[in-house]
Amino acid sequence: MLKSRVIPCLDVNDGRVVKGVKFQNLRDAGCPVELSFHYEEQGADELVLLDVTATRQERIAMLETVDKVRKRLSIPLTVGGGIKTIEDAERLLNAGADKVSINSAAVRNPDLIVDMAARFGAQCTVVAIDAKTTDGEFQVLTRSGTEAESLNAVEWAATAQRLGAGEILLTSFDRDGTRDGYDLPMLSAVTEACSLPVIASGGADSVAHMIEAFEHGAHAVLAASIFHDGNTTVMKVKQELDRLGVHVRI
Known about the structure:
The chain is α/β, with parallel strands linked by helices. About 35% of the residues lie in helices and about 30% in strands. The chain has one domain: Aldolase class I (TIM Barrel).
């Protein structure tokens, strides 16, 4: 049986880890290199590193930071932010990323998913979907949540799978940083619509929230605030999940 994964997320802005609520009011949370090593020591299965302003600033995610993190890190690393072309993705992989996450560019140019999967493999091709609930629909957002698209997140996840994506990183805009728990209706709808591994993101405050996500189809759970603020550790979370019957790597 595949192990359920626990993944700390590092949102980075100007070389520092930051955290906000609904992608706004960012506060400093530390050094990405030190935090990456810290979370690996705690037992993180993977790390996600997202440059949260790269797309709006029309630049690729921080190559120098990725390189520095990789020199300290041995677990898988997913990097996203500002990727527009296959060459951008290749630069991040060469800098040390194991997977590349694409969001806005994939919406604008779905063939980018096809091209990345063909050149690097589906296992390297992560489609990040940021979405909010609007009139009962799960509406896709791009450009760090600042632009609403006429695209349904459930349909987009199924399309991403068809185009060759290997994984979906699903973030609820409504729950981001709120600690109110994952958006379970959205998560269920997406996991029922595609068979790819889905990482649930946005709203984690407890092990109970993570268990709910796994019960609603998530293959992995992403969390930031609870780890950055020192409320718990990755290992404590995994030990509790294991005690409650969730198959995790201890």
